[in-house]
Specification:
Blueprint (H helix, E strand, L loop, with lengths): L5 E5 L8 H11 L1 E7 L2 E5 L10 E8 L2 E6 L1 H8 L4 H6 L2 E10 L2 E6 L4 E7 L4
Antiparallel strand pairs: 1-2, 1-8, 2-3, 3-4, 4-5, 5-6, 6-7, 7-8
Length: about 120
C-alpha cells in the first residue's frame, strides 16, 4: 500500500510509442492513486466530461482482494441521471490487486471479469 500513491494509466489504452506520447497521455488521462489509510486508497479520475473528478475508493478485504465503491453522485453528474440504474448496478465491486513491480499494478475486476494493467506515470 505504501507504493500505491502517484499518477497511473491503464496501459491497455495508452500510447506507449515513445516517452513524449506517454507523458502526454499521462497528463490527459492519468488517474491519481491516493492512500487514505493503511487499508484503503482512492483512485481519482481525470476531469474530462464534468466539473469534478470521479472518485473510486478501494478498501482492503482479504489477501490481495479489495472492495471498491464508486462515488455515484459524481458518476450521475457525468453520465446523466438517466443512466442511474446502470450506475447503481455497478456502484460496488471487488478486485484483486497485485503489484507486479513498483511501476506496474495488475487489477482483476471480478465484476467485469477483465484485467487492467496499470503503469505508473513518470515523475518530473
Amino acid at each position: 500500500m505504501s507504493l500505491i500513491e502517484g499518477k497511473w494509466i491503464d496501459l491497455g489504452y495508452s500510447d506507449l510509442t515513445n516517452e513524449d506520447n506517454m507523458k502526454k497521455y499521462c497528463d490527459k488521462f492519468g488517474e491519481s492513486f491516493k492512500k487514505l489509510t493503511d487499508y484503503s486508497f482512492d483512485i481519482i479520475g481525470p476531469v474530462t466530461r464534468s466539473k469534478h473528478a470521479i472518485h473510486r475508493e478501494y478498501i482492503f478485504k482479504t489477501g490481495i482482494s479489495y472492495n471498491y465503491r464508486w462515488n455515484i453522485e459524481q458518476q450521475m453528474e457525468v453520465l446523466g441521471s438517466g443512466n442511474g440504474k446502470e450506475i447503481l448496478k455497478n456502484a460496488n465491486g471487488t478486485s484483486a490487486l497485485l503489484m507486479m513491480t513498483p511501476n506496474t499494478l495488475l487489477e482483476i475486476d471480478f465484476s467485469f471479469a477483465q484485467p487492467i494493467l496499470w503503469g505508473r506515470c513518470p515523475t518530473e
